[in-house]
Amino acid sequence: MNDGPVHRTVKPVVVATLEELDIARVSTVSRERARALIDDTAPHTDASRLTDFAFRFTAEVVASLLGAAPETLPSIARWTDDFVRCLAPSSSAAELERGKAAAAHLLDLGRSLQSGGGLVAALNGHAHADTDVMVANAIGFLSQSYEATAGLIGNTLLALAQHADLRRAVPAVVREVVRHDPPVQNTRRFVAQDGRVAGVEMKAGDAILVVLAAANRDPEANPEPAEFDVMRAAPRVFTFSVGPHACPGTTLATTIAVAGVQALITAGLVFDGLAETVRYRPSVNTRVPLFG
Fold first, then answer.
1. Dist CA 269 CA 42 (whole Å)
2. How much is the pTM?
């Protein structure tokens, strides 16, 4: 959240690298990983496996795009889970230790992929790129997509459980889920200088909780905001933020989610009863359903 000199140098490299991604290739990799995991874990036949599928699938797709070899993907998914869990304010001492070990593994992974053909090499290929900083940002692709994309998959499945007529329109459903039931509920911003925000006097350094999910339901932004409408004209969506801090990975996340959900439908996922036992992963800012 610091727009200092380092941020101003690194962000354009990260944004450019993601903009250069071949989305057709992202779709292909996503479909391949989905089929492999469905064959391996059969989440379409057991709702309790759906959550693990969503998380592991997300991590394995992103790791593949980073340039990781197929045989390393299960380990990378475990490291990503341990690393993300340790970032939560409620993480235990044991989770912090596992996260520390996972971070070391992920750093070694990132450094090993610098000369490959994936996103790590692409990051390092930009002029003036600092190698260690780019490796850290590559790990960021894994950690920042992990809960958000898994949540988007899960929330889309819940939407399709309620709207059976839309199961042939998954891309449109994912887009509306991003607005209507977003996986990322809020974020934080810090005041750069003294001033007034929404009529409240603020001091430099004050923290502001920005509830993105509420902004999506603002009737001035989206008429009839409580309605789930895949035909909504020109929706305004704030889930992945807007302006200078807009998430550059929005297209990546939605593409992965579409492929994962479509693969589950093709495999024969039974939606009946899916929403009856759902609960949510404890989190201060994400909405990730846990099935089964």
1. 9
2. 0.94
